[in-house]
């Protein structure tokens, strides 16, 4: 029996993994090609919307506020991740790590207050907010006049 070469001994598991993955992919593609439907109908190329005929296109214009909120979420989510990592190692980081975490939380809190003050977290445009305030004032005045 011939000795196993160093390369074969080191990489045999990787080689088996790659062959297995390629085999599974080929089996899945082959089965979908053999068992897949070949019927061509009027509605075959239309998207399926749970049995409802689709209306309009998929190209919607979204406000930039959606993207702003997404960025804020990511920023404050990463903050939570950093604070979790700090909490796991709080004993090793000592007081210096505690003060660094306090400064980090203060900076992020100040940025949240700044975003709140400039109106970056407001969803409705100012005109809609103004109309809502006017309607609320009218309702309150009507309720006060009733009593």
Automatic annotation (TrEMBL):
It catalyses: a quinone + NADH + 5 H(+)(in) = a quinol + NAD(+) + 4 H(+)(out). One of its GO terms (molecular function) is NADH dehydrogenase (ubiquinone) activity. It is found in: Cell membrane; Membrane. It is a multi-pass membrane protein. Its main location: membrane. Its EC number is 7.1.1.-. It comes from the Bacteria. InterPro entries: NAD(P)H_OxRDtase_bac/plastid (IPR023043), NADH_UbQ/plastoQ_OxRdtase_su3 (IPR000440), NDAH_ubi_oxred_su3_sf (IPR038430). One of its GO terms (cellular component) is NADH dehydrogenase complex. The chain crosses the membrane at residues 12-35, 66-87, 93-116. Keywords: Cell membrane, Membrane, NAD, Quinone, Translocase, Transmembrane, Transmembrane helix, Transport, Ubiquinone. Pfam families: Oxidored_q4. Belongs to the complex I subunit 3 family. NDH-1 is composed of 14 different subunits. Subunits NuoA, H, J, K, L, M, N constitute the membrane sector of the complex. NDH-1 shuttles electrons from NADH, via FMN and iron-sulfur (Fe-S) centers, to quinones in the respiratory chain. The immediate electron acceptor for the enzyme in this species is believed to be ubiquinone. Couples the redox reaction to proton translocation (for every two electrons transferred, four hydrogen ions are translocated across the cytoplasmic membrane), and thus conserves the redox energy in a proton gradient. This is NADH-quinone oxidoreductase subunit A. It comes from Solimonas aquatica. The lineage of its organism: Bacteria, Pseudomonadati, Pseudomonadota, Gammaproteobacteria, Nevskiales.
